[in-house]
Amino acid sequence: MTKTIDINCDLGESIQPNDWARDAELMPYISSCNIACGGHAGNENSIRVSIQNAKSHRLAVGAHPSYPDKENFGRQSMTLSEKALRSTLKEQINKVQNGCRQQSIELHHIKPHGALYNDAATDLALAKVIAEEIASVSSSIKYMGLAESAMLDAAKAVGVDFIHEGFMDRNYQKNKTLVPRTEPHALHANLEDSLEQALSFAQNRAITLPDGEKLSITVDSICLHGDNPNALQIAQKLQQLFQHHNIDISLG
């Protein structure tokens, strides 16, 4: 029996057409994408072209809002009032939502970016604000976030569907959060470890922590980082590995 798993990728994180073309090269190997909304990267042109390319490859399109901080690529936590946070989330999500409407496709999900994502994984109040903003756009839009985190609890509380996400190239801590990028062993040292972790997620097997312990995390979607210089080669190898194990890359 063929298993299925969604592979998602963060795209549109540049305003350079050459980078949009590289994003498009990844699209045959993934099933969903998260498009930068201008908070940490991107602009109206990158959003439009990214949606157009995603539509042509029949990908599920998501918005990828962040703290409004292009200088740090959205990777530093910010202290915003709830009003300011809601305002920037609305503005960013609307850019992708409007882009989808113009190209006659549905916005499928919303996935926070960077520090906003990491903060919401452990801060229920913050995660709930994001969930409420998702619900205000449409009851059919899903919330993509760190598997089995506070974002799941927020989604349940607000009544939006949740997509449990796992990362193939990031190491995890015992509490099921990611090892911070500022610490050693945040990223897998080699591609083989990343591929093995992706296969473990897809097969519902425990992953291995940096200290050798095992951790079980159930995921619906696996993130492939599109900003990796070798992203295309990684995507191709991942597809080959999954085909060998009778795993179909799709939304299911």
From TrEMBL:
Gene3D superfamilies with a match to the protein in the record: Glycoside hydrolase/deacetylase (3.20.20.370)
Phylogenetic classification of the source organism: Bacteria, Pseudomonadati, Pseudomonadota, Gammaproteobacteria, Kangiellales
InterPro entries on file: Glyco_hydro/deAcase_b/a-brl, LamB/YcsF/PxpA-like
GO biological process: carbohydrate metabolic process
Source organism, top-level taxon: Bacteria
Name assigned to this protein: LamB/YcsF family protein
One Pfam family recorded for the sequence: LamB_YcsF
